[in-house]
Structure formats: C-alpha cells, structure tokens
Design a protein that fits this description.
This protein is mostly helical. The chain is about 60% helix and about 0% strand.
C-alpha cells in the first residue's frame, strides 16, 4: 500500500510520503562508488535488502556487517574499518524513518491497532493464557499486592 502524501510542498521525503529506496540507493552509490546507470539494479537490490533488514529489526551493526560482506564479495574499493559504521547508521535511519512513518499512517487509517503499553506483568499475562480458571484464581490470590 502506498503511503499517504502529507504535503507535496513538504521539505523532506518523509513528509512527502516518498519511498526510502532512492535515498538508500544514493547512499550506497557513494559508499560503493557505483555511479553508472548499469549499477542501478544492483543498488536497488541492496537497498531493498537493507530496508527488509531494518523492517526485521536489524540494528545498524547488522547493516554494517552486511556492508562489509558486500565489499568483500564484490571486490569494491577497500574501506577503512571505521567507514562502515557511519554509512550503516545513515542507511538504518533512512529505512527506519520510512518504516515508522508507514506504520503510523496505517494506525491512523485504522488498519492496525496502535501499540498501547500494557502495565500487566509478564507473569500475569502468561498465567491468564496458560492456567485453568481454578489455577488462575489460586495464582491471583497468592500474588503480592502492588
């Protein structure tokens, strides 16, 4: 589903509802020094992979590891060890900004319920789902008062 365009005049791609992929591709192009039109499918593929990684809760450390593996596997120009982390942080934040925006829009459209913090303890949550009604009554009777 395409994100809602908040404003065509917004000053940034997030508020305009644009895809993060072109920004991810641009950053990857600079990092890997791939500026030829023939490189676009490769850049798109890896931008999509990084977006998927972030959607699956990868951290910037995971993204840095992925960048290192790409440098190793593609024979790209050697990078200093310290160059991976800033690039990974930038890629992660680009992807995360779009994912958070898209999630918020889905919540606002009523497609999914908001994540409402629950003060219920894990033990109470588990007890309600695992115990029989009699066991649950005993558990609750024995539970310390807050």
């Amino acid at each position: 589903m395409k994100p809602t365009i908040i404003s065509r005049k917004a000053s940034n791609w997030v508020d305009r509802g644009e895809s993060p992929v072109p920004r991810l591709c641009r950053l990857l192009a600079h990092f890997f020094e791939k500026f030829d039109e023939a490189d676009e499918p490769w850049l798109r593929e890896h931008a999509d992979i990084i977006l998927g990684m972030v959607a699956a809760d990868a951290t910037e450390v995971h993204v840095a590891g992925y960048l290192k593996s790409l440098v190793r596997d593609t024979g790209a120009p050697a990078r200093e060890r310290l160059e991976f982390r800033p690039a990974a942080i930038a890629l992660w934040h680009i992807a995360k900004a779009a994912l958070v925006r898209d999630f918020a829009e889905r919540v606002l459209r009523g497609e999914i319920p908001p994540n409402i913090p629950n003060d219920e303890s894990l033990s109470s949550w588990l007890a309600q789902r695992l115990l029989t009604p009699e066991e649950l009554a005993r558990f609750e009777a024995e539970a310390p008062e807050d």
